[in-house]
Amino acid sequence: MKYFAILQHWGPFNVDCVMFVEVCPRPELGDNIKAEGLQRFYNPGEQLVLSCVLGYKPSYGLRYIVCMNTGIWSANRFRCEPVQCPHPDPPVNGQLHYEDTLYENTVNYTCNDGFNLVGARSASCLIDGRWSAEQPLCEPVSCDPAPIPKFGLIVYDKIIKRHQNIQFGTTGTYKCLPPFALFGKEKAECTASGQWTETPQCREVSCPPPENIEHGYMSISQKRDFDYTEMIKYGCDGDYVLDGPQDIVCEKTGEWSEKPSCKAPCSVEIRRGRIMYKENKIWIENFEPKQILHGEILSVYCLDEDKKCGYATPAQCDDGNLQLPTCFQEPNVLTYLVKSSLPSEIQQC
C-alpha cells in the first residue's frame, strides 16, 4: 500500500497540518472483466465500475468495487460468462457444421445431394446472443421434363402435372413405338445436378423371313421381313414333340430368338413282359402303338435276386432313343406264358 501526505489548515490560527492516508493501487480485475479510466492510485471511498469484455456478459456479483481506508479494494465477486447463442438445428434435408456456439463462432450449413441451399450458407454468433442469419432452407433440385427420343415416349413413376417441377429422384421408363427398338438405358432419373440421365435412342429393327424346322411347320407362309417384337409359332408333324418355345420373336439385334426343334418318338422294342406307363401296368402285347413320345417315361421290371422281389425302373424317351435299364431281362417264351414268376408279378421290393 502507498501513503500520501495531505496538507490541511487547522485551527483559528491556520496552523498547517500534514496528514498521511493510505491509497489503493490499480486493482487486479480478473478474467474477462474491465473498467473504464483506470488510474495508478485511488483514494479511499472511490468506486470503480466494472463491466465485461466483448463477448462476455455479467453472471453475478456487484458491478463495482470500493477503495477502503485500509488501502485495499473491497472484495470483487463480479463474474462474467461467455455470450452463447442457442444451439442451431440442421435444416430439413441438410446438415450443419460447427465447433461451438459462443460469441464469434460460426456455423456452416450444407444440403444433402439433390437439394439446393436457399439462404445464408453460414451464420456467426453475435454479441447479443443471436445468430447473424436465419436457418436456410434445402429445396429439392428439379429437372425440366425428360427429353423424349424420336419415335419414343417416357412413362414417369408418378403422376406429373402440367407445368409442375419434376423433383430430384423422380424416375421414368422409356419405351419405343413399334417397330422401333430401344437402344440405351430403359430407366431415366432426375439427378442431383438437375439433369436427366442419358436419353436412349429408338431405332427401326426388322428380321429376315424365318426358317422352318425339321419335322415341323410355321404359323406363316409368306416370305417377308418382320418388324421388331413380331412373333411366329412353330408346331411339329405327327408324333414329333416340340422341344423349346412354341413362339419365336424378332429381337432388337435383328435376329430371331432361339428356334425350337421337333423330337422323334421312341419305339418300345419289347416282345415279352409287363411295363408301367402313365401309372398303369400294361402287358406289352396290349400296348399300342408300341411307342412313346419324346420326354415320356415308361418303367420296366427288374429282379432283385438276393431279396427275390421285383422293382420298377424308369426309362425316358430322348429324341427317338429309348435306353432300357441294364437290369431288365426279357423273359423267355415259357416263363412269359406262366407269368406268375415274372418280376412284375412277384412281391415288390
From TrEMBL:
Disulfide bonds join C24-C67, C111-C138, C207-C250. Residues 22-82, 83-140, 141-204, 205-264 form the Sushi domain. SUPFAM superfamilies: Complement control module/SCR domain. CDD domains: CCP. Pfam families: Sushi (PF00084), Sushi_2 (PF09014). It is found in: Secreted. Keywords: Disulfide bond, Glycoprotein, Heparin-binding, Repeat, Secreted, Signal, Sushi. One of its GO terms (cellular component) is extracellular region. Its main location: secreted. This is Beta-2-glycoprotein 1. Binds to various kinds of negatively charged substances such as heparin, phospholipids, and dextran sulfate. May prevent activation of the intrinsic blood coagulation cascade by binding to phospholipids on the surface of damaged cells. One of its GO terms (molecular function) is heparin binding.
